[in-house]
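Figure 2 data, in text form.
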Amino acid sequence: MKTRGFTLIESLVAVAIVALAVGGPLYAANRALVAAEISRDRLTAIYLAQEAIEQARHVRDTAYLNDYKNNGQDTSGSWQKFRDLILTGPVNCRTPSICTVEPTSHQFAAYTPPAVPPPLYNDSAGTRQYTQNKPGATSKPTIFTRTIQVVSESTTDPVGMELAATTSWTFHGTSYSVTITDHLTAWQ
């Protein structure tokens, strides 16, 4: 007696082939989405780290411009004022200490490890500006933390310092970070 139809084994093999045919592209699409999200976050982190370097540069430039305006073009003490601001006193950004910088007020705040700086906030009220302090009710904490520190200081001519800005974040339980370094020197 010969029967027609599929056996149980043939049916299982067919289901397995269909599952692989559908599952493979879905897995690839999932990995592509995760990679795109990581790339988006990495790009944001690069911009945030660069912004921290630019904030330090802005503070240095402001010291020079204020001295130029107020002291009749004598800017000889400007570099020392900048150094004193981020290396001594209540704010010490020299390694191993780390600092945060508030982009709206250009203020530095110091943290000594293991203290962890607060996350950056995103003002969703329209400015979309990342800020160190929670400015209002519409602000939401982000996944990013940003620090800046003086890695090394040159005492030779020209006087300068190496700054390192690091933006860190966690995505799906994995920690990521981006570090940008730059050298600031005296204007003179």
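Caption note: The longest strand covers residues 160-171.
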